[in-house]
Amino acid sequence: GAGVSQSPSNKVTEKGKDVELRCDPISGHTALYWYRQSLGQGLEFLIYFQGNSAPDKSGLPSDRFSAERTGGSVSTLTIQRTQQEDSAVYLCASSLVASGGADTQYFGPGTRLTVL
Amino acid sequence: AQTVTQSQPEMSVQEAETVTLSCTYDTSESDYYLFWYKQPPSRQMILVIRQEAYKQQNATENRFSVNFQKAAKSFSLKISDSQLGDAAMYFCAYRSFNDMRFGAGTRLTVKP
Fold first, then answer.
1. CA distance B98 to A61
2. Cβ–Cβ gap A101/B102 under 8 Å
3. CA angle B33, B37, B40 (to 5 degrees)
4. Mean pLDDT across B12-35
5. Is residue B55 classed exposed, middle or buried when 0-12, 13-18 and 19+ CB atoms within 10 A define those classes?
6. B-proximal residues of A, 70-99, CB under 8 Å
7. Do A100 and B44 touch (CB under 8 A)?
8. Mutation site for B-interface testing, chosen from A35, A104, A107 by largest number of B Cβ within 10 Å
9. Residue B82 above 90 pLDDT?
10. Distance (Å) from the C-alpha of residue A76 to the closest C-alpha of chain B?
11. Cβ separation B102–A102 shorter than 8 A
């Protein structure tokens, strides 16, 4: 596809359930980023991948959050035992290569997660 | 920790007029980038303009320009000849090699 795609667009789940959010970056982009946007807030950086490697996972809010990327393409963000405070829009972005700011990130439309 | 502050939760401008959105940041780094992103109701973040900290010249992209004051750690966005399509949330962002932070955003309304 031409842009970054994310699925599902919206996800409603019950507290305590696990969810998987998917990001499909622009073809050829080696860097992939995950962000969380809570209601009325700016974006919170969660994690980034250069290829299949995530150099720094310290942005993940808790050990219930994990992310993986295989084949240098699609990435999955998994939230285990969801809590109501996990409700937010999860945005994914990709760029040609992670270069500390010189690269332009292209964002997907996000997944709105609601935990009841 | 680096912080990014947008002191104007909401701003309003008349169509064809000029508006300036404010942003300040805190960092001990000397090499970093600053960004303004636009987020329309579709949620998709769009890069408006980027400034490299080591460049003294202010970045410009058509009707969008910045006033970068490195010593004051200020990075404001000026939108000239405002158009209805400029209405959106605008986020200021800071990025160094291992860190990226966003401000809380400014909601811009454009009145016809």
1. 17
2. no
3. 170
4. 94
5. exposed
6. 89, 91, 93
7. no
8. A107
9. yes
10. 19
11. no
**Residue type for B88, please?**
A
Per-residue pLDDT tens over the stretch A76-111: 999 999 999 999 999 999 998 777 777 888 999 999
Nearest to A104 among B6, B32, B47 (CB): B47
pLDDT at B42 over 90: no
Using the CB atoms, write b or e for A6-27: b if 16+ within 10 Å. Answer: beeeebebeeeeebebebbbbe
User: In angstroms, rounded to a whole number, what is the distance separating the alpha carbons of residues B59 and B68?
Assistant: 8
Q: Which amino acid is at A104?
A: T
Closest Cβ opposite residue B103 in set A42, A105, A110? A42
Instruction: Write the pLDDT tens digit of every residue in A9-64.
Output: 999 999 999 999 999 999 999 999 999 999 877 889 999 998 888 888 888 999 99
How far apart are alpha carbons A50 and A33 in whole angstroms?
9
